Amino acid sequence: MRQNPSFVLGDIPEIRRLIEQNPWVTLVSETADGLVASHYAVVLDPDRDDLTILGHVGRPDEAIHELGSHELLVIVQGPHGYISPGWYDDNPAVPTWNFVVAHLRAVPEILGDEENYRVLGHLVEHFEKRMPEPRLMEGTPANAEYARRISSGTVGFRLTPTRVTAKRKLSQNRPAETVERIIDQLENGVEYPNPALAAEMRRARR
């Protein structure tokens, strides 16, 4: 991803927030057979305050990705959307796309079976805890037995990025009144409503 100094996202807490709010990521590996991409949910490592993430792949994706033998690219995609030049002013302009994204790169650490099982439990709890009656992996003996059996079909990993490229392109290069007009269109317009992107633009202005 080409970086632009005007749009650099270098704040670790903000990148952590991006990951927390957009956990469905793309995993990309360059293997002996060419590029491979998969999609999985990840969570931040609860024992770290950096950008270390925990995740898993289903077998045989670990073999297809050659997981652990080379660098893995993790793409985190946040809110994004079309921006019409009609939302600017009367000067000549072209359409664009606003977005928030982060690329995390490193050779992932492959987890042992027990740690993978704990990570799977943490993953389930992370997403299930907001449910009125959470169904946790070890919530009942039957659940625990099933979870133990099914976890053998997964391979867990921990990735502490050695290279991070994060970008927040949210019309920061436009005048304040233009940004407000774009936000209004994203919040109240009928053609391309996108409240999540509008919220990111307001956050970037702060």
Automatic annotation (TrEMBL):
Coiled coil: none annotated. It holds the Pfam family FMN_bind_2. InterPro entries: Split_barrel_FMN-bd, TR_PAI2-type. Gene3D superfamilies: Electron Transport, Fmn-binding Protein, Chain A (2.30.110.10). This is Negative transcriptional regulator, PaiB family. It comes from Mycetocola miduiensis.
